[in-house]
Design a protein that fits this description.
Distance between the termini: 25 Å
CATH class: Mainly Beta
Order of helices and strands: HEEEEEHEHHEEEEEE
Shape: globular
CATH topology: Pnp Oxidase, Chain A
Number of helices: 4
CATH architecture: Roll
Length: 169
């Protein structure tokens, strides 16, 4: 076993990770999408998930402000380029959904839209966020969960150098 130069190098050794999009609502009422590389189930009772986002993240700011969020796992019908663009640009200055051509749909009893081609959508209320160095860790209470068995999830391979369904790699 050898020492790794950076914590991110470990992600390349334990692939794959599901690619995920955090969906939030901006003050103008539009849905903003941000790619996240890590989220986890925290508890089944009460149903709780957590995810990490860099501190300056506009999406994180919207989650902290609105106290609402939907975490989705996009399907292979959304291009890897579109997904990576959602994590490479800020919603502070760019209307990502419109500019990257991502079609949205509504969920029942939720004012945050999600990508049409989502495998799962976990609708949450923010319970708290914790300072975790250069990131905040968001702890969210799950309000509703939706899934579509007809969609194929995308995964990140080799630290996001490849995004593909598990069957393709």
């Amino acid at each position: 076993m050898k020492a790794l130069s950076h914590l991110l190098d470990s992600a390349k050794l334990i692939d794959p990770n599901p690619v995920s999009l955090v969906c939030s609502k901006t003050p103008s009422g539009i849905t903003n999408l941000a790619t996240v590389s890590w989220w986890t189930y925290l508890s089944l009772d009460p149903a709780t998930i957590g995810f990490a986002m860099m501190k300056p993240s506009y999406t994180g700011e919207m989650v902290r402000t609105n106290k609402k969020v939907v975490l989705t796992v996009p399907s292979d019908k959304i291009s890897p380029k579109q997904i990576m663009q959602c994590g490479s640009f800020t919603g502070r200055t760019k209307e990502k959904v419109k500019e990257f051509g991502i079609e949205l749909k509504s969920l029942p009893d939720c004012d945050i839209q999600i990508p049409v081609h989502s495998v799962i959508a976990i609708q949450c209320a923010l319970r708290e966020f914790v300072d975790a160095g250069d990131h905040y860790f968001y702890i969210c209470d799950v309000e509703n969960v939706y899934g579509d068995e007809n969609e194929t999830p995308l995964f990140a391979w080799k630290g996001y150098s490849k995004i593909a369904p598990a069957k393709e790699v």
